Amino acid sequence: RKLEVGTERKLELEVGMERKLELELEASGTSSFSPGPKLALRYHCAVCGKGFSAPSRLEIHRRTHTGEKPFECGECDKRFNTADQLRVHQRNHSGQKPFECALCKKRFNKTGHLAEHQRTHTGERPFQCHVCQRRFNASGTLAVHHRTHTGERPFHCTVCNKLFNRSSDLTTHSRIHTGEKPFQCSVCNKRFSHSATLRKHYIVHSWDDAFRETA
């Protein structure tokens, strides 16, 4: 069943209002409060039995079982299971970056990316490895680090089946098979498959410039 974006937004707003009420009740400190029928988990998933306080929450959860993604990007045909996910994705095409760092004015297209960036100013590292106690400023960085302890390599090449612990390493490796060279020298237009190789290549031009100056 496909929901219209307007209908989805209406349901998501309903969730937001209920959550706001829940937070206000928690802040009131009234521990003896008994939720009324509006906050009761009246809507239950037919697959796993999990309960929800609003039909919109149940609808979004249901898609985790069905794999349904009713919201399609008009630019790249990528699909999403909520309207908000689609709106965030569309900023990749529009270049919109509505979230600005108050310290350096750098802009981001997601609040999560802004939060991670702000920790470069504060030095905060709230995510700690439970094995070696090392700390990180982003949960994703911690997840990658944790694989150095477990040996997990969840990303595999579909051509040669080589395994990697980071998706970026798989992307770089895949260029061996595709021949893709996305990094181009601005001086001689030579192309490279790795950004590090391009940086090393620029040294050649700096040597050429130095030689011409001394000649």
Short description:
The protein is mainly alpha-helical. Helix content is 48%, strand content 11%.
Describe this structure in words.
This protein folds into 3 domains: 42-96, 2-Layer Sandwich (Double Stranded RNA Binding Domain); 98-152, Double Stranded RNA Binding Domain; 155-213, Classic Zinc Finger (Double Stranded RNA Binding Domain), CATH 3.30.160.60. 48% of the residues lie in helices and 11% in strands. The chain is built from 7 helices and 12 strands. The protein has helices spanning 5-27, 55-66, 83-94, 111-122, 139-150, 167-178, 195-214, and strands spanning 43-44, 51-52, 71-72, 79-80, 99-100, 107-108, 127-128, 135-136, 155-156, 163-164, 183-184, 191-192. Strand 5 and strand 6 form a beta hairpin. The radius of gyration is 24 Å and the shape is extended. The model is unreliable at 1-38 (pLDDT under 50). InterPro entries: Znf_C2H2_sf (IPR036236), Znf_C2H2_type (IPR013087).
CATH topology of the largest domain: Double Stranded RNA Binding Domain
Structural class: mainly alpha
Any idea what the CATH superfamily of the largest domain is called?
Classic Zinc Finger
The number of E-state strands comes to 12
The end-to-end span amounts to 74 Å
Overall mean pLDDT stands at: 82
CATH architecture of the largest domain: 2-Layer Sandwich
Order of SSEs, N→C? HEEHEEHEEHEEHEEHEEH
CATH class of the largest domain: Alpha Beta
Number of helices: 7
Strand order of the largest sheet: 1-2
The global form is extended
Radius of gyration, in Å, reads 24 Å
Low-confidence stretches: 1-38
